[in-house]
UniProtKB/TrEMBL annotation:
Record PROSITE patterns: IG_LIKE
GO cellular component: membrane
InterPro entries the UniProt entry points to: CD300_family_receptors, Ig-like_dom, Ig-like_dom_sf, Ig-like_fold, Ig_sub, Ig_V-set
Protein's name according to its UniProt entry: Ig-like domain-containing protein
Length: 233
């Protein structure tokens, strides 16, 4: 009976946090992640460095369960990366009935801090998808990412957004404020391409292909440039 009451209190608390508002470290207005039925997705959940020692978890509004970090099951993995101040949630073999809202939380005492609130939309024909969910490049080099969208999104704004600092790059605009050039070209039919040149190590991280109110995550890894070693003869 006590366990049942505690569970009910937790559900009520989540509802109250969402109604009254909690500290939210990430404020995307377009946070609908679209995934094809049967597919998988990895979602980043950033948190403030001060929360590094705290327990983090992924809460599902669908089945009312919470999964703590460093848990790996057949279709769900929640892994913490303290050195990056984030944990990732990987969901596999997603089905239409898993469409709904999910939450990244950090335990901060008597209540928890909501760090990200994505809405997952699982559909046989997702509105926005990516050719590859992870890309890599060398320092000083280039990478290209192709973002796909359905016909209903042709007239929507296309953007390439960095998750951590919420910086977005819009089609037709080049931004060099991070010492790297970002160029976006839209074919006007079904895809847009993001070209990042002059990569820096600090460009590593999580980004989103964003179209209208839908998006899809992409992880970028930038490694040190290879240097030729000249040996004495």
């Amino acid at each position: 009976m006590a366990a049942h009451a505690k569970t009910n209190i937790f559900y009520i608390s989540v509802g109250l946090w969402l109604i009254l508002g909690v500290e939210c470290e990430f404020g995307w207005s377009n946070n609908t992640i679209t995934i094809q039925t049967g597919g998988s997705v990895t979602i980043p959940c950033h948190y403030d460095k001060k929360y590094t020692p705290q327990r983090k978890y992924w809460y599902s509004e669908i089945d009312k369960n919470k999964t703590y970090t460093n848990t790996t099951d057949e279709n769900l993995s929640v892994i913490d990366y303290p050195d990056q101040s984030l944990f990732t949630v990987t969901m596999r073999n997603l089905q239409d009935n898993q469409t709904g809202s999910y939450y990244c939380f950090v335990e901060t005492g008597e209540q928890s801090t909501l760090t990200y609130e994505p809405h997952l939309n699982i559909h046989p024909a997702p509105g926005v998808s990516v050719m590859s969910s992870s890309v890599s490049g060398h320092e000083g080099g280039n990478i290209s990412v192709q973002c796909l969208y359905s016909s209903g999104y042709q007239n929507e704004v296309k953007q390439w957004c960095r998750y951590k600092d919420q910086r977005c790059y819009t089609v037709g605009r080049t931004d060099t404020s991070q010492n790297s050039s970002v160029q976006i070209s839209d074919d006007g039919r079904s895809s847009f391409t993001v070209l990042m040149t002059g990569l820096r190590l600090t460009d590593s991280g999580w980004y989103f292909c964003s179209v209208g109110n839908a998006l899809n995550p992409v992880q970028l890894t930038v490694t040190k440039a290879e240097t030729d070693t000249v040996k004495d003869t």
